[in-house]
Amino acid sequence: MKGAGAYRYRVVDVFADQPLEGNALAVFPDAARIDTGTMQKIARELNLAETAFVVPTTRAGCAVGVRIFTPMREMTFAGHPTVGTAFVLLEEGIVPRNSERFAVDEKVGAVQIRVEAGGRTLIWLRTPPILEGRSFDRMVCAQSLGLTKSDLLEIPPQLMSAGNPTVFVALRDRKAVDHAWLDVSNYHLLKGDHPEAICVFVFTPTSEGAYSRMFAPEHGIPEDPATGSSTGPLAAFMIRHGLVSSTAGSRFVSEQGTKMRRRSILHVHIHGERGRDGIDVGGHVVPVVEAMMTI
């Protein structure tokens, strides 16, 4: 096994206001000697939504490379690993602790990080370019989620992606969001012939922004407590349908994971009218574990 030895790692709770909430992430801050196959085995061993490995980068302007794995596969881009790894990079001094901006190299490309200091540090990522895919029949989505058509808002569900293809389904209220559950036997109705693994994201508009849940069976994640990679596209979807303010500088939050007792708060910042200058997703990070893995 290439790179056999002992490796220090940290576990942090991302998009969390206190320990044991948000989305847990393992970060290996010095993973240059760990090969791809072993990274995947480690992610499966830890069995968190994602595990991140910090490696050298050859991309100009990036501080480090970051490789991200679910228990099942490597990701092109993921939000809570990006925010959580940025926190660890700052804590470890891998990037200067007083940095306000830097970039990390992921398979999607360079991801920009912004650090908002204050009472509690808020770490933001700039969402990669958002691609829009096909729309879906509301009844098909209702059946796939164990809901009735009347549980859905009269907005066509749509596939959108910033590196992590996601079907967005707008529901009428929190009760419908909490009642939803992806019927894996009907998952093919949403998957179709799409070549990549897809996620299914349900939400309802709230006075604060959105109340959300996300399912990702192809990633080995029955439900995700916080999905930063899908929250930028969520904002774009909500702006398109008039569900949140599209004014430059607008901010709102998506509350996710509450149903599964991992309450997460994902902050959204709109740059430019209707987000034309970018959509940032940010959150707080709470450190919970420092450990050593021997492989």
Question: Which CATH architecture of the largest domain?
Answer: Roll
Distance between the termini: 8 Å
Oligomeric state: single chain
- Secondary structural class: alpha+beta
Mean pLDDT: 96
In helices, the fraction of residues equals: 10-25%
> What fraction of the residues are assigned to beta strands by DSSP?
35-45%
Task: Name the overall outline.
Answer: globular
Largest sheet: 18 strands, mixed
CATH homologous group name of the largest domain: Diaminopimelate Epimerase, Chain A, domain 1
Tally of helical runs: 6
Total number of domains: 2
Rounded Rg: 18 Å
Count all strands and give the number.
18
- The third-level CATH topology of the largest domain is Diaminopimelate Epimerase, Chain A, domain 1
Order of helices and strands: EEHEEEHEEEEHEEHHEEEHEEEE
Q: Which consecutive residue ranges, at least 5 long each, have pLDDT under 50? A: none
What is the top-level CATH class of the largest domain?
Alpha Beta
